[in-house]
Design a protein that fits this description.
Oligomer: single chain
Radius of gyration: 15 Å
Largest sheet: 6 strands, antiparallel
Order of helices and strands: EEHHEEHEE
Strand order of the largest sheet: 1-2-3-4-6-5
Structural class: alpha+beta
Helix content: 25-40%
Shape: globular
Distance between the termini: 37 Å
């Protein structure tokens, strides 16, 4: 972790809950990013009073881990992690310098590895990739609380 910032603001009377970190793609960055995600989710629950299911806590850490792994593996140079509370969900955004957009591969139970993007798309409520002036931004949203009717957090059919 080379640079970290916790941002708090009150745009339009609503409090912005956000955490951002920059990484250089060094060993240990992915573990630090997961810890940032865990701390952010605990803050969302304890300091801001939003319900966070155990499943959502785990999924946000998984999404952060997979997206940052891809950024460190396939993009040269630094990458940025943004976590932001938007309504009842957390948006995980990872920026990296590679202009190539990721593509999920066809399901293949015999393939070893390279299932991260498939997993992120399956457990997220939404998934988007946007080109940036330099590189791209990958955004996945995870709902904080499981549905009271028993439906779990994740992509809606």
């Amino acid at each position: 972790m080379d640079e970290a910032a916790q941002e708090r603001a009150q745009p339009g009377g609503d409090r912005l809950v956000r955490a951002s970190e920059a990484y250089e793609g060094r060993p240990g960055d992915i573990a630090r990013a997961r810890e940032t995600a865990r701390a952010f989710m605990k803050e969302v629950q304890s300091d801001h009073g939003f319900p966070v299911s155990d499943r959502a806590m785990d999924i946000v850490q998984l999404v952060v881990s997979e997206l940052l792994t891809n950024a460190c593996k396939y993009a040269p140079g630094p990458c940025l992690l943004d976590l932001e509370l938007v309504g009842g969900r957390v948006e995980v955004t990872v920026w990296d310098s590679a202009p190539v957009l990721p593509v999920a591969r066809a399901a293949d139970p015999g393939r070893v590895g390279q299932h991260g993007l498939e997993i992120v798309m399956a457990v997220s409520q939404s998934f988007e990739v946007h080109r940036a002036p330099v590189g791209k931004r990958t955004v996945a949203a995870v709902v904080l609380a499981d549905d009271p009717d028993g439906d779990v957090t994740g992509h809606r059919p």
